[in-house]
Specification:
alpha/beta
């Protein structure tokens, strides 16, 4: 299957982080290489792109897309949570720009057998890295009711989390829930489909399970801090998020790292000795109407940018 994925806010990303045509830039979520190829187009032969992705299919697609760019390219099959280790192995400490394009790619959603979409019947999988052990099948069929409720409530912000968790527990007493189709039918029976504006009742549950399977939120805060530690002074970090949970983490992490003091407000004097590490560059950026016409999935995307002090 061809790796199809439209990079979100490509021009905005390149304008935000490319400050040195001879610099080193890290794409922590390489995907099919769309953002990286655009960044590479702004670099000279001394410049370098380091691409990281945990999806083997994405890696192969990116290798083809970046095969003939005019700068140096290093591609690593790994997770961005290992950024320190990856840069150490590449004998690279400080870089000029770092990009995180969070969430699931269009290719992963559209590849039915990966189990990411509630619109296609497939085995419950949802692993971005297919070499890892935990799958959506494990989550749905082995987590207890309280754990399922917590995931649906916290990661999916689902108002019927209790009801759905209980229905799953009852259903799997008879047989395992093996496919996305079975899970969708169960949710449809359990949750009223109020109106089209509220979205399909399975959408938030699938998001929650995907986040749990891939530990998407658990690694974010430390990954951002690690990335900033590896930026040169004046280097930029750009992060694209696709739902409020991710965006809240990025917003709060940036806010803390941009503060000269993080003491409680009622402290008369500063005792934390915290110093600002970054400067936040403007407000969040969203996709232009012209982009949304060709790529509706960019509607929920938010781009935040900061610069290393």
């Amino acid at each position: 299957m061809t790796f199809n994925h439209l990079s979100v806010m490509p021009t905005e990303v390149v304008d935000a982080i490319v400050t040195n045509p001879s610099g080193i830039y890290v794409d922590c979520t390489l995907g099919g290489g769309g953002h990286s190829k655009l960044i590479a187009s702004k670099l000279d032969p001394e410049g370098m792109i380091i691409g990281i992705d945990q999806d083997a299919e994405a890696i192969e697609a990116a290798k083809l897309r970046l095969a003939e760019v005019g700068c140096q390219v290093r591609i690593v099959h790994s997770n961005f949570s290992r950024l320190d280790e990856i840069l150490h192995d590449l004998e690279t400490d400080k870089v000029d720009g770092i990009l995180f394009d969070l969430g699931v790619s269009s290719h992963q959603i559209d590849t039915a057998e990966r189990g990411f979409s509630y619109m296609h019947n497939a085995p419950l999988d949802m692993r971005m890295d297919r070499s890892q052990n935990l799958t959506a099948h494990d989550v749905i069929n082995t987590y207890d009711e309280e754990s399922l409720y917590k995931i649906f409530h916290e990661y999916g912000e689902e108002r019927f989390s209790n009801r759905i968790a209980r229905a799953i527990i009852n259903a799997r007493k008879d047989k395992p829930i093996d496919t996305t189709g079975e899970l969708v039918k169960l949710i449809e029976k359990t949750v009223p489909f109020i109106n089209k504006k509220s979205g399909h009742p399975a959408k938030r549950v699938f998001q929650a399970v995907r986040i749990e399977v891939n530990n998407e939120l658990g690694i974010l805060n430390e990954a951002i801090q690690s990335a900033v530690n590896h930026l040169k002074s004046g280097g930029r970090i750009a992060v694209i998020t696709f739902h409020s949970l991710e965006d809240r983490i990025i917003k709060n992490t940036f806010k803390t790292m941009a503060a000269d003091c993080i003491c409680p407000k009622n402290f008369p004097v500063c005792v934390c000795n915290h110093k600002a590490e970054i400067k936040i560059l403007g407000k969040q950026i969203t996709a232009a109407d012209s982009e949304l016409e060709s790529n509706p999935r960019a509607k929920s995307a938010k781009l935040r940018v900061a610069e290393k002090i």
